Amino acid sequence: QVQLVESGGGLVQAGGSLRLSCAASGRIFSINRMGWYRQAPGKQRELVAVITTVGSVNYADSVKGRVTISRDNAKNTVYLQMDSLKSEDTAVYYCYAHGVVPLTDYWGQGTQVTVSS
Q: Which secondary-structure segment (H or E) carries 91?
């Protein structure tokens, strides 16, 4: 099992910044990528950004240029730096980890990000 604990959400004005953190514990060795998804009210959960164990990254088109995902392997932590936030970024943000042994996905409890216009 892998446990994911998120932190860093909150209320911010449009144009502001937030940094989310996700600390992983447990079967860390089984993870080959981690990332962030978000879910706004009435919408499906969508990918924000993902980073692999070798550092390859991928971003949703809606956040490219405004969001940076990074990882600290020594701390088993993934970060999501969000800048130039918009009201449409308001959502619950979920940390995600993809395990390969066993093949399964793990999710954090979610952290609320609210951007006021």
A: strand 91-100
Contact 95, 69 (CB under 8 A): no
**DSSP structural state of residue 27:** S
Distance CA 8, CA 92 (A): 12
At residue 102, the pLDDT reads 85
Cα–Cα separations (whole angstroms), residue 76 to 36, 71, 86, 105, 117: 15, 7, 29, 16, 34
Q: Which residues of the chain have pLDDT under 70?
A: none
Query: Are the C-beta atoms of residues 36 and 96 closer than 8 Å to each other?
Result: yes
What per-residue confidence (pLDDT) applies to 24?
Answer: 96
Q: Are 93 and 103 in contact (CB under 8 A)?
A: no
* Residue 98 DSSP SS3: strand
Task: Calculate the CA dihedral of residues 32, 5, 22, 31 and round it to 10 degrees.
Answer: -10
Query: Tokens 């969508």 map to which residue?
Result: 46
